[in-house]
Specification:
It is a single chain. The chain contains 6 helices and 12 strands. The protein is an alpha/beta fold and about 270 residues long. The strands form 2 sheets. Strands 1-2-3-12-11-4-7-9-8-10 form a 10-stranded mixed sheet, sandwiched between helices. A two-stranded antiparallel ribbon has the order 5-6. The longest helix has 16 residues. About 10% of the residues have low confidence. It is an enzyme of class 2 (transferase). Its EC number is 2.1.1.-. One of its GO terms (biological process) is methylation.
């Protein structure tokens, strides 16, 4: 039997949403509670400044470092999709990095943040100003995207900044661990892939969440996209707080969380 698509999902009574429209000061947002997940549809920068989310144990996120990204796709003669990005000014990156500072100040244990080469230094410095020890890691993709015009060597890795507080919990006790994580990226056509253009593999997110979150902790992703961090956190027994500005991706995230519960807690 083929794997059901999250986009075709129809919620049942087992995963019923509790949806409210709330306001804190001048900031309005939609709030959706599904089991141990609390999902917000709104601008996370505004919600962070308003103090909506509160303290958490771990921050795991992949921010859009441009405020007005436009994601386009095209197909080659071999059927491969490529992404086109329209990144804007340094001011946009500054806004996102400052929002990470506000979020990190509420984090009790550790943070893992995906970022580009251009943002890695700013992200690390911001986490250090929040009282954390910040270091760098990389996610290596065995199957990088195909070359494009003007792209000599397609990138086969993504940068990660991780940070932790003194005495923080660390859940990776493997003997040969290091700061290089090898995991296949999601290519279009795979069952796990949904509509979000920068979706991360669930196994990679589960490993990162497991490593930085104490038992029954709370994980936050203020730029949750299609909700992969949330599904990873819930599958490990944690609570999840997520925020997404796009109503389309917010709905997909809600459906993925519902589907997680309907499958009996299987990611």
């Amino acid at each position: 039997m083929p794997e059901p698509s999250v986009l075709d999902h129809k919620p049942t009574a087992e995963s019923q949403r509790i949806v409210t429209t709330d306001q804190v000061g001048s900031v309005q947002f939609q709030k959706c509670v599904i089991g141990d997940a609390t999902l917000y549809c709104g601008d996370s920068r505004e919600l962070l400044r308003a103090g909506v989310f509160g303290p958490c144990d771990a921050l795991v996120t992949d921010p859009p470092y441009a405020l007005q990204n436009r994601f386009g796709t095209m197909k080659t003669d071999k059927g491969t999709r490529r992404l086109q990005f329209d990144f804007d000014s340094k001011d946009a990156t500054f806004e996102v990095v400052q929002s990470l500072r506000l979020c990190a100040e509420q984090v009790r244990n550790a943070a893992v943040i995906f970022c580009g080469t251009e943002q890695a230094g700013d992200v690390a410095r911001t986490l250090r100003t929040s009282g954390m020890v910040a270091k760098h890691a990389v996610w290596v993709k065995p199957y990088p995207p195909p070359p494009g015009d003007g792209n000599w060597w397609p990138s086969a890795h993504e940068n990660i900044v991780y940070a932790y507080r003194k005495g923080a919990f660390f859940g990776d006790d493997s003997k040969y661990r290091c700061n290089v994580f090898v995991c296949d990226n999601l290519r279009y056509g795979r069952a796990e892939k949904v509509a979000h253009p920068t979706q991360k593999p669930i196994e990679l997110l589960k490993y990162l969440v497991r490593s930085v979150t104490p038992a029954r902790g709370t994980v936050i992703d203020p730029y949750m996209g299609s909700g992969t961090t949330g599904v990873a956190a819930l599958s490990l027994g944690h609570s999840f707080i997520g925020c997404e500005i796009s109503p389309e991706f917010f709905e997909i995230a809600c459906q993925r969380v519902e589907l997680f519960y309907e499958r009996g807690g299987a990611a």
